[in-house]
Amino acid sequence: MTGQRAPGAALPLAGLCVFEFGHSVAAPFAGQILGDMGAEVIKVEKPAGDDARRWGPPFWEGESAIFQTLNRGKRSLCLDLRDEAAIARLKALLLERGDVVLQNMRPGQAESLGLGAEALLAAKPSLVCCNLGAFGRTGPLAQAPGYDPLMQAFGGLMSVTGEAGRPAVRVGVSMVDMGTGMWAVIGILAALQRRAMTGIGGVVDVSLFETAAAWMSVPVAQYLSSGEAPERQGSGAQGIVPYRAYRTADGELVVAAGNDALFRALARVLERPEWLDDPRFRSNPDRVAHQDLLYPMIEAEMLKRPNAEWMRRLDIAGIPCAPVQDVGAMLEHPQTQALGLLQSLPGTGVQAIGLPISFDGTRPEPRGPVPARGADNALLGGNAA
Fold it and tell me: pTM for the whole thing?
């Protein structure tokens, strides 16, 4: 078919070389995305390796499960960043082969090593240099360190996560770290597009705090329009009722009856026709105002039947719903399997979630396992470790 990518055709970023001075999660996740899309990713590690190699248990085939999923298919250079000769060889290799430099070193470290964006672009103007920081490149906290839970707190995410009246909780995944990695990739791809037109690279800056603030876009709009800070809604959503999880006879089920027609359909499924004419529930603003009354009434009905029965009834009525699944149930679901989301790292027994992107109907597959520490030091020549 015209326009369809032939099996085995080059991935979109094939031929691109990325140097990743990345540790922990954010920069390695960005490097993993670029690598899965075809780029050669050369990971630069300290002699002991990325700390994430030891973030366990659980460990899987010699490395932490965290490291396995964030660093597949990369190459590894291990060197002492205090060794001037090793740094010189690294810089020469980078300037010879590099298209993109991705780094989340502590503030000022790249510059002190002669690997900052200004120095590298002076030597090779076509480079795209991406800095992943904590609080951003300017401001009173520009030099402060930052980690995902700190940014979930500082950026406001914890203020809207969890149950009302209970202590703050962190979103269970490193969404600020991984979101920053995604913004890094978006910025890099945009800069590469500009380079394709002009021949000139440039600097991309992203940070954990800016990512956390961006995730808060809707709560920020709600605050600015009302003057009231959004509160924690548990599994629900500010300003939409009913729209949350309920306990059932054998589990939990999220029901998203997010408009008036869906609420009326839900009232019929729950066999509570009197709700249809109740002025407290007539419109979404009415239901929001009376949610403390409505939600317990809905859950009392939901407790009468198991998940499967409610899902059957809700599906027939056209009401969106989903069971609250743990990781195992999600992986075993036929939808996950049909999409081929779980992929194997070549030559290993390790599996990981693949990119949530397909090109011409094909999801890119991992091109290799994680690298052994310093496995590619021969690229530097001499003894760089």
Answer: 0.90
